[in-house]
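worker-03 picked up job from queue 'complexes'. Input manifest follows; two sequence lines, order preserved.
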Amino acid sequence: MKLTSANINVMVKACRKASRYLIRDFGEIEKLQVSIKGPGDFVTSSDKKVEKIIIEELEKARPSYSILSEEIGEVNKDKEFKWIIDPIDGTSNFLHGIPHFAISIGLEHNKEIISGIIYDPIKDEMFAAEKGNGAYVNNQRIRVSSRSNLKDCIIFTGGPRANDKSKDLIFEEYKKISLKVNTAIRKLGSAALDMAYVASGRCDGFLQRNLNYWDIAAGIILVKEAGGYVTDFNGKDEYIKNKSILAANSKIIKK
Amino acid sequence: MKLTSANINVMVKACRKASRYLIRDFGEIEKLQVSIKGPGDFVTSSDKKVEKIIIEELEKARPSYSILSEEIGEVNKDKEFKWIIDPIDGTSNFLHGIPHFAISIGLEHNKEIISGIIYDPIKDEMFAAEKGNGAYVNNQRIRVSSRSNLKDCIIFTGGPRANDKSKDLIFEEYKKISLKVNTAIRKLGSAALDMAYVASGRCDGFLQRNLNYWDIAAGIILVKEAGGYVTDFNGKDEYIKNKSILAANSKIIKK
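worker-03 finished. Artifact:
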């Protein structure tokens, strides 16, 4: 069984085309990253190039859909359908030559995410999900983990970012959660892959403050379709307004 | 240019043979990890099997060398040469299906690490180094990064472990270092790969308390031969006695 809807195919095609450039540029980064200046400007141009290819491909197939993407922002057309794009999630990893980053594309229909893909080009893992049709990695069905005892769990998190105003709160939460899960916390540096890993049961939960919508859009449908639960820290689904997200198997979340 | 010494070849051969089982078992884990009990026992047996294969291969080639390995402990023979083995570094990642773990083998000569390999079977990256002959990944020369401004750096760390007595201290240090590096901290869950990533310039520094010798033995020679600096938190090289290690490019370490 696998996902074969037309919109998933459009996303996968755009993503595969863009990822060829991404991989080539990552090879260049590995040479640049030992220089003192570092590959900062190169990465920005890489990010924009990858975004351009994705948007061109998506617009070719769906000329009327609106777009929200990290670099170019909002392109408002159709009111019903909107692509939510993060051309490189885990930019800082990419910049440093750490082989852990992803392309993330979600699709909104009437303000609800109805499908999404997250692609890890280094491990060639294509995570995809569609409302009502389940979640997959490379066409294999995935499900969230079944662990119910926090002491056995691994939890992923990220942040705070450099200019974050709630740094102290985030460090406090980090310590608190660390102690609850026997200190099995990971910070891998890509929120999109963190959520894909929750969906595939590789980690049991993920939480982070102050993310952008393009970081989490595809991840939300992936976790939900894998049988998981997604909420903001107030128990609602206002991830951006409430500046927080928690995604986990449903056994370790208090509702 | 690459490393071709007989001892490196012995390590690489043992490691490649063992990694075939490791990859096969990891495939099984991915199926087991969604079950409630989880693959705990399976992982222990996998760890022991991989260790057995590595030791058999090493002993076939070097019957007289002593051994220190995570599961079986010390095997004292030759006083000059000793293999230091971690069959699966990042066991907790392996257990949860997180594709980030490694085999680590170091070689001591008269109490000094003179060569070592760290192998990531998922990405097929063989990191190897030999005293005086440099450090390599898949036969490509690697060097530590050149970043000197902490604000541009990514730092890797790990711990505290569940039963760690210095948890509070470790959380304090985590926060302190986070703020110094613009919060670009990663916790990837494998100390051996953390050190291999310092050696290849993917991260700028790594620090952790309370590691075992098999976690860091191969990493020490890799970082040194890549032009980096390795010290315990007291500025000495008593990593086990002083229960701490710091490995980084030499520009960001106060000597």
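worker-03 released lock.
The mean pLDDT of chain B is 92.
Chain B has two domains: 6-141, 150-248.
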